[in-house]
């Protein structure tokens, strides 16, 4: 295989450029260096001899275009009757393509404000799509629950009891410990502030009021969002990644009925009970601080509690627990169904379920607080 060459014969008039040998990809680097000094010395009066041209491919044709120019090479290809038809067609095609090619303009770099607004817009659109998916999944869950409510044979009692144990009984120690400590902290801070006004006795009302209405249910819901929603997402997500969800559908079973309903119902049972435990533990923690720091005996603490705190405060806190439980369970299960086929996807959606659950719990709690305040509760 003869390496291609380009030799300019300036001793004759007009000067002649003789193209010979194989102009192929195998000789591309050698030919590129060979034509570099010739590209600037070729005038319009130089004749071109292609009679000794050997093998030719697209790479070689592109080098000839760089050497002779696209229009000139196309004209030569039409006139060089001694070249094979395939080579003439290749030279014309490459010449036309390179002549029509234009360097695309570089895209203008957007300003930082534009980039920021774009990211905000994408985030808002993503959140909107998430909420639509959540509403749809809530509707699907309620529809499945209503369809099976009057069909006891389809109730999965074993799965329900197992999830009640995992989400409720196993969470009692951490919920009780956390709320006990928070109750002690609230009582200590309250007594510190109220002592300046000589009203330390109202620390009892502060602890009871805050834990019955807000802290008991809110702290429990946040703990369940971090503990239970993540577990639901990881469990269902692992099944989705291992294609077990597809296997369930192949067997003619409903994943919502089989996986979602037991978890939702279990949390609907567990969270109100845990909320009650949290209220008692928080009040006990506050009572311990009152007994040790403020010299308010347990008997006096209970007397003030019964005389100043109405039952409606307890009901206000407890009525929010089923709503939080349903949303936490649904979000955890939905994020599990969104998992792809990788372990990274499981981790991402587990994180997302915790963040979404905590956000929704705090948002609903704030709206509920405004609502109960407006109606005088």
Protein model, in words:
Helix 10 crosses helix 12 (311-337). With 377 residues, the chain is mainly α. The chain is elongated. It is built from 13 helices and three strands; from the N terminus they run E-E-H-E-H-H-H-H-H-H-H-H-H-H-H-H. It folds into two domains: 5-100, 2-Layer Sandwich (Transcription Regulator spoIIAA); 127-374, no CATH class. 72% of the residues lie in helices and 6% in strands. The longest helix has 39 residues, at 203-241.
Summarize the structure.
By secondary structure, this protein is mainly alpha-helical. It has 13 helices and 3 strands; from the N terminus they run ββαβαααααααααααα.
Write out key terms for the chains shown:
single chain, 377 residues, mainly alpha, Transcription Regulator spoIIAA, three-stranded mixed sheet, 13 helices, 3 strands, elongated
Write the layout of secondary structure elements.
Layout: E1 5-9, E2 16-23, H1 28-35, E3 47-56, H2 58-68, H3 70-79, H4 85-100, H5 112-149, H6 157-167, H7 172-194, H8 203-241, H9 244-250, H10 255-293, H11 298-308, H12 311-337, H13 343-374
Parallel strand pairs: 2-3
Antiparallel strand pairs: 1-2
